[in-house]
Amino acid sequence: MVAGKYESDPAAVCYSAHDRAVREKYDFVLCDTAGRLHTRHNLMEELKKVRRSLAKLDETSPHERLLVVDATTGGNALAQARQFNAAMDLTGLIVTKLDGSGKGGCVVAIREELNLPTRFIGTGEKAEDFKIFDPHSFVADIL
């Protein structure tokens, strides 16, 4: 784990993590930034900086850019996905809280409008509640 000091530049922390992973021959690097609102311009610019910083070490990096959305936010998840996709050219979604009142209709709307696949879902708080998304099971559960 590579962590920065309080209020560190997220791009610098991600750059350091990527550099270390290459030197120590890790198979992958996972950069998890702090939660952010799509309406906060400065935070969206921070994400773009992370991407530019990682590209200095590997022009194809980051290889995956996943947005985590809360199933209970409904239509707001689509608005979030639009903004994050514009900033980061997303490759997929992680949808959480599918065990609650949210039914995850945002999955369909986001796929339809932005062609972003849902890669993983969260249906609880345990590690085994984090699963690869299966669209057939998802539809069956809704029906």
Describe the structure.
- The protein is α/β, with parallel strands linked by helices.
- It has two domains: 1-63, no CATH class; 64-143, P-loop containing nucleotide triphosphate hydrolases (Rossmann fold, 3-Layer(aba) Sandwich).
- It has five helices and four strands.
- It has helices at residues 10-23, 41-57, 76-88, 105-114, 135-142; strands at 66-70, 92-96, 118-122, 130-132.
- A four-stranded mixed sheet has the order 1-2-3-4, covered by helices on one side.
- Helix 4 (105-114) links the parallel strand 2 (92-96) and strand 3 (118-122).
- Helix 1 (10-23) runs parallel beside helix 2 and helix 3 (76-88) packs parallel to helix 4.
- The longest helix has 17 residues, at 41-57.
- It starts with 9 loop residues before the first helix and ends with a helix.
- The mean pLDDT is 88.
Short description:
With 143 residues, this protein is of the alpha/beta class.
State the CATH class of the largest domain: Alpha Beta
> Largest sheet, described in full?
4 strands, mixed
- How much strand content do the residues show? 5-15%
The level of helicity is 40-55%
Straight-line distance between termini: 41 Å
Task: Give the helices and strands, then pairings.
Layout: H1 10-23, H2 41-57, E1 66-70, H3 76-88, E2 92-96, H4 105-114, E3 118-122, E4 130-132, H5 135-142
Parallel strand pairs: 1-2, 2-3
Antiparallel strand pairs: 3-4
